[in-house]
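Give me structure tokens for this 159-residue protein.
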Amino acid sequence: MADKKSRVVTRRRVVALGSASVLTPVSGCLDSVSGLISGRPPIDEVDVRFQDIRKPSIGVSSITLPVLIELHNAAQDAIPSPAIEADVFIMDEQVATSETTVTTLDPGEEATTSLDVIIKGEDLSQSLIDAIRSGEFSIRLEGEISSEGASKSFSVSTT
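Here you go.
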């Protein structure tokens, strides 16, 4: 009987040690596992960076300013259809809120997207219009990137 208990204890130790050896290499992936358990993509692993501003399109009652931003998914899981919403500041003056959605970001993928900022005429002072026309201005985006219930705040600027 003592021999049988000894075998049970030994089997438990083997199972416990085997489980620990399986978990040890996987421990670096715990964020991914917790993301799978919660059902939310690891949006905290996405870096948002300012890339460029394209030439503005000036209309009768508004200015459209294409702002290029780069997204990098550093996670080991895909980020399905991340949505970006941002308040846009030119020379520290809020001029618009803009949003866009990107296709799924695969693990390690970098993607560039255009955030078309539409600034209505009544939201612009003459000094801002002149700065945009001359191309000499600073721009800042403060917003949120989200995907399937997970979200993260970000702030990027030209300076």
